[in-house]
Design a protein that fits this description.
Elements: E1 4-9, H1 10-39, H2 52-84, H3 91-113, H4 127-149, H5 158-177, E2 180-184, E3 187-190, H6 194-212, H7 215-229, H8 236-250, H9 265-277, H10 279-291, H11 297-302, H12 304-326, H13 329-335, H14 339-368, H15 376-408, H16 421-427, H17 429-459, E4 465-470, H18 485-489, H19 493-517, H20 533-544, H21 559-565, H22 600-608, H23 610-613, H24 635-644, H25 657-674, H26 684-694, H27 697-701
Pathway: Energy metabolism; oxidative phosphorylation
Main location: membrane
Family: Belongs to the heme-copper respiratory oxidase family.
């Protein structure tokens, strides 16, 4: 049989590696900035782009899509070529993929800093960037499947299974969650509202973690761990079970982010059941990885790459045990809205994603530059600094989470709440400070890595086109003996793609259909009316400033929450909310019943200088709201968009909406004037006050007999 000579493309891998290194530092710096600004709000510099509400999504997007995203592509482009014994399908598509992804990252950061956001966690980028992501993702998919089609190895190794499952599921998640109605170049409203929007968002949000931060990294683990250990994977059969069970079960688990909320109970219970089931495939994969090191544990002591891999797998195991545990209602009642969730997320992000990425970089770069790592001692130093950083980050956050929940739920002997909300914030400040120290250590370790890899590259010689040879793929001979089903499917990548799509689509369809088609699942409430034009503008400002990053708008049916905030939240309250704003963390108090609680002047002074109204507050000042004006020329477009989305404004209201806006603004202006505060009717602060005074007020003001379903 004739042997074919060809060349692997290392140049694309190199550029993705460089991007991974660069964005790791940028993403971690943004995270450290946000962590410090939590307890030192002056760090915001009275500058809108550097407030926590805008820095937090910049940090999460930079870490998830820039650092981890480039890490995925780096590992896939390297391993796929060697597993398929073929160069990537198209060098041009590789370039389009790389540069397209970097441009999206830069544009995403700039738009988020500028306040252009959809207000949906991990999906904050506005509609033009959603389209760009789709196009680049398709380019990646064509390149990947083109490579698989022209492979010289018939067998598709399990790592490729995980790559295929990742590609099709992320495409599905992104498209479904990104249905939105644009009203301008960088402004849109979610197609879904309230409970439906929350369900779709956390179906996406949970599975973005599953299929962007987990499945591709499992594929990388199945390739790079055996390579680094020089051992075959412990059980190939277990890896197959791991793949199919994981992608089927994971997709159902999203509703566990919405326990005790206004989401229908059946959907919450479904999420809980499948979340608990996730322990089995997740731990099966972890054990498969750790058992691959059998007979190689002596190498772990010497090889920093293996050290990083072992801790990465251990953190994966910890996070995937804790996730199902947090989905149990009795545990979730304690953890949700607290810093426990932040600790849980960062065990996975810092330990699993971060350390596995570092391991791949330490293994790949010496290979591509045909040299040895500059310093194993520095790599080991990085490992220990990073490990200590993870501990100093997560342990204080667990402690803070338990403390928050206990203080929130504490009552005096007289049955009164024992602590004001602000007391729970000031009490855990030392833990926030310790968390930032842990983050700084983790970042310092990454800086050590950058130096080590720079010196490694400097002493090596890069091979852009790595020579390889292999026999062409021979025509398959039909055998009549018994074949395992997976042996058949793994030879047919497109059938595997279709089967993977069917497996992951089942859960989403079954969860969505009743909520979208059965009216009784989302009842309406007679007293709940559409937002006024001024309130719509105020809500857009609220979303722009990322207020949902610190405040929830969801009162759960717990004694302490009802006592602290008011009547628990109902599904019908949110039917006009595009997007929903329930939040997932309470750094500040819940705002679901803030409407009418304080006079207009209180909100004015609170936004101007929070310390004057709440001594000890860690909320930043929002000085620009008192200088910038709302754009009333957009009001008709906003009204028409809401009408398209089903909000029952009367026909032709877009033409008269601004008159109502100015009339309501005049009322707030007069109210503030009575407290010796001068404003213009179109000041952004006036619109924000209008929205805050409306939130939850429909329910508070309605007679009891009017909160019934209509």
């Amino acid at each position: 049989m004739q042997i074919e000579k060809f060349y692997y493309d290392n140049k694309t891998v190199k550029w993705f590696a460089y991007a991974t290194i660069f964005w790791s530092i940028v993403g971690m710096l943004a995270g450290l900035w946000a962590a410090v600004s939590i307890y030192y709000p002056a760090l915001n510099l009275n500058f809108a782009p550097t407030t926590f509400g805008r820095m937090r999504p910049v940090h999460t997007n930079a870490v998830i899509f820039a650092f981890v995203g480039n890490g995925i592509f780096m590992g896939v482009y390297y391993s796929l070529q060697r597993l398929c014994k073929a160069r990537m399908f198209s060098d041009l598509l590789s370039k389009i993929h790389f540069w397209g992804w970097q441009l999206i990252i830069v544009a995403g950061a700039l738009t988020l800093w500028a306040g252009y956001t959809t207000g949906k966690e991990y999906a904050e980028l506005e509609w033009p960037l959603d389209i760009a992501i789709t196009l680049v993702w398709v380019a990646f998919g064509v390149n990947m499947f083109g490579t698989i089609v022209k492979r010289r190895e018939r067998h598709l190794y399990v790592a490729i299974w995980f790559y295929i499952g990742t590609w099709i599921t992320v495409a599905m998640l992104h498209i479904v969650n990104s249905f939105e109605l644009p009203i301008s170049f960088l402004k849109s409203y979610s197609w879904y509202a309230g409970v439906q929007d929350a369900l779709v968002q956390w179906w996406y949000g949970h599975n973005a973690v599953a299929f962007f931060l987990t499945t591709p990294y499992l594929g990388l683990m199945y390739y790079f761990l055996p390579k680094a250990a020089n051992r075959p994977v412990y059980s190939y059969r277990l890896s197959i079970i791991h793949f199919w069970s994981l992608i089927f079960i994971y997709i159902w688990a999203g509703p566990h982010h919405l326990l005790y909320t206004a989401l229908p109970d059946w959907a919450q219970s479904l999420g809980t059941v499948f979340s608990v089931m996730l322990i089995a495939p997740s731990w099966g994969g972890m054990m498969n990885g750790l058992f691959t090191l059998r007979g190689a544990w002596d190498k772990v002591k010497e090889e920093p790459v293996l050290k990083f891999l072992v801790v990465a797998l251990t953190c994966y195991g910890m996070a995937t045990f804790e996730g199902p545990m947090l989905s149990i209602k009795s545990v979730n009642a304690i953890s949700h809205f607290t810093d426990w969730t932040i600790a849980h997320v960062h065990v996975g992000a810092l330990g699993w994603n971060g350390f596995l990425t570092f391991a791949v970089l330490y293994w790949l770069i010496p290979k591509m530059w045909k040299t040895d790592l500059y310093s194993k001692k520095l790599a080991n130093t990085h490992f220990w600094i990073g490990t200590i950083g993870i501990v100093l980050y997560t342990v204080p956050m667990y402690w803070a989470g338990f403390t928050q929940s206990l203080m929130w739920k504490s009552f005096t002997e007289d049955g009164l709440l024992k602590f004001r909300f602000l007391e729970t914030v000031t009490h855990i400040m030392p833990l926030y400070i310790t968390r930032s120290i842990g983050g700084a250590l983790y970042l310092s370790g990454a800086v050590v890595m950058v130096y080590n890899l720079y010196k490694t590259i400097a002493k090596g010689s890069f091979v852009a086109d790595e020579a390889a040879e292999a026999a062409p793929l021979a025509k398959e001979v039909v055998t009549h003996g018994k074949q395992h089903w997976h042996s058949v499917i793994e030879k047919r990548p497109f059938q595997m793609l279709i089967l993977s799509f069917v497996v992951v689509a089942i859960g989403g369809i079954i969860e969505f259909m009743p909520t979208f088609l059965v009216k009784s699942n989302i009842p309406t409430i007679a007293s709940v009316k559409p937002y006024t034009p001024l309130e719509l503008h105020g809500r857009d400002i609220y979303i722009r400033e990322g207020c949902y990053n610190c405040h929830s708008q969801m009162i759960r049916p717990f004694r302490d929450e009802v006592a602290r905030y008011g009547e628990y939240s109902k599904a019908g309250e949110f039917v006009y909310d595009h997007p929903f704003q329930w939040g997932s963390k309470r750094t500040g108090p819940d705002l679901a019943r803030i409407g009418g609680k304080y006079p207009d002047s209180w909100h004015y002074n609170h936004m101007f200088d929070p310390q004057t109204m709440s001594p000890g507050s860690i909320m930043p000042r929002y000085g620009w709201l008192f200088e910038d004006q709302i754009d009333t020329t957009k009001t008709p477009k906003m009204i028409r968009a809401m009408q398209t989305l089903g909000v029952p404004y009367e026909k032709g209201y877009d033409a008269t909406a601004n008159a109502d806006l100015m009339n309501q603004a005049k009322g707030i202006k007069e109210s503030l004037k009575s407290d010796k505060i001068k404003v213009q009717s179109t000041d952004e602060i006036v619109a924000l006050i209008a929205y805050l005074q409306r939130v939850g007020k429909d329910i508070k003001d309605a007679p009891k007999n009017q909160t019934a379903v209509r």
